[in-house]
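Contributing new records

If you add data, match the layout below exactly. Sequence lines come first and carry their own label; structure lines follow with theirs. Keep one chain per record. Anything else will be rejected by the validation script.
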Amino acid sequence: MSAPVTVAAAVPERLRLTEIFLSLQGESNSVGWPTVFVRLTGCPLRCRYCDTTYSFHGGQWWEIDAIVAEVARLGVRHVCVTGGEPLAQKRCLALLQRLCDAGHAVSLETSGALDIGGVDPRVARVVDIKTPGSGEVHRNHWANIALLTPRDEVKFVICSREDYEWSRAVVAEHALAARCDVLFSPAFGQVAPRELAQWIVDDRLPVRFQLQLHKVLWGDEPGR
């Protein structure tokens, strides 16, 4: 008589999270909307202006089912998966799909250093292109540009006039404004917002000037 076959129970998919919270979206085309932020732990980059260094380490393990349930409990349509660098955790792709399946308007904030090709096409991808002033310009994954669609956005954080001129050249070289919305944001405390705004106006640049609304409202308060 043959031995009984033991079937292993499926292991729930998990992600390491720093926080889940409800606030206003402070950036991107969804600025101003009440939004649930799902902040994943960990990032392979160390940008000089990073304002979420607390998300580099620690965090807690959450099952994807629990994350989706918590997002639903908070009761708004817009959800932003951010970090850290969310794509550094492989199961982020499954989370994005589940959130879309649940009917949410989902956005992903990513450093631009990792391949965005596997992201669910229903997700609006906000992709950084790292400027020289970030200290991580060598990490840009330039192949992502060919994957951009009109529902995506590209963001440049400008730390200086040199960063601005570098970014202006990248926008022209890759015809980025024809692919998707392009955002220029002043690095907090490094470039005066009015100064960057004037540069954009003077050059008639086809980009959107962006201030971080949450910084205007709440400063550097974590979880905002």
